[in-house]
What does this fold into?
Amino acid sequence: MRARIGVIGDDDLLASLFILSASALGIQDIILMAPKLDQRLVDAAARLSPEFKLNFLEGFYTHPILEDMFRGCSVLVDLSHFGLADKLLLERSYRSGIPLVRGFTTLEDCQEGFKVFTYFRGREWDEIEQMVCSPNLPAPHFDDAVLDMIVAGMVLQETKNLLMGRPVAEEIIAYRRGCIRSTGPDFPVCIVGAGALGNFVALGLAFLGFRHITVMDPDMIEVTNLNRQILFYEAVGMGKAQILCARLNDLFHTNAVAVQEAYGSSTDMRSFHAVFDCVDNFEARILLSERCKSEKKILISGGTGMDSGQVVNYVPQESPETPAEALGLYAIMDRRSVDSSQRDRTACVRQPLPSVIMTNQIIAGFMLDSFRGILEGRRVENIYYSDKYPWRLTSDMFSQD
It folds into this structure.
């Protein structure tokens, strides 16, 4: 995409996660002002796309004179957490006619969450006041890497819709849940599937502090994977599981271990406390559901399409259905027992859809957030996301403001 995007960030991960995904999507020209960035993510963004250009100005957006930096921008993106920047950008958007996408994490009334909305001239809602942060000047604020991941994906989806002339969300996109105290012990976990969804789950686990991660995938990296599988830059032709683990170990000092094979009925799962289902076929998903049920393991199952996705959880002794049962996969496959070696896969290489990066980023974030809730002993709901929903999210966990 040849459009220029203007971004205002803060001293957290949100802007860096947005930059990484925007590069993979194909946005080539970004002007960004923030006090700092995560250099690991910025370097990955540069390696993903040789044509990617980031003009980074270090600091806070605190004066109208700085608006000159946005000349030629098609969309403005506000990821800040202080009211002065929010007001200046809203005023700039109103005067110039440049649409503004606003996204940030929230901590209100002992509940954590986020809000995302898109403003353009003529959309003069009463709800706009909800999008201005109460601290007027830069100050310490609530931040969460997993929620940042979701917000970055949703903001990028809204940005893409604006650039392509598609409808944006009709309402404020809002999510709230009780505060999470910690991620708990560093349990050994397994990610089955190292595609786009697996990349984001792995990245999120590393940010949460999990170190004992096993990644299982039989496939090799193709050129067409790079527009959504964010950690596979400069690794075409190599094994997905091996490269994903190598990147985690190098960037985050994890103890990630690669298993370069497909998940099957003989796969040993005994050492894992939880399994993340990031596979791309129903057969493997059914097999994972059956194994985790029989071995009483937590299963977080994510599925994505071009503009929608879902998270379905299985918690032993608590969940009435496995993900395969909840999604009706047995009826789809018309058989009870399958093995992944028999699968008729539709590999990612046959589906070069750049827009699915946002869906995978969003669903991976909700998979990780569900996992944290499960570790705290909470009841978590299944989550459904679609770019076609006016409010984008469906679950009784969510509030629509």
Remarks:
- Residues 310 and 384 are 4 Å apart (CA to CA).
- The domain at 4-178 is CATH 3.40.50.720 (Rossmann fold).
- Residues 336-355, 396-401 have pLDDT under 50 and may be disordered.
- The two ends are 32 Å apart (CA to CA).
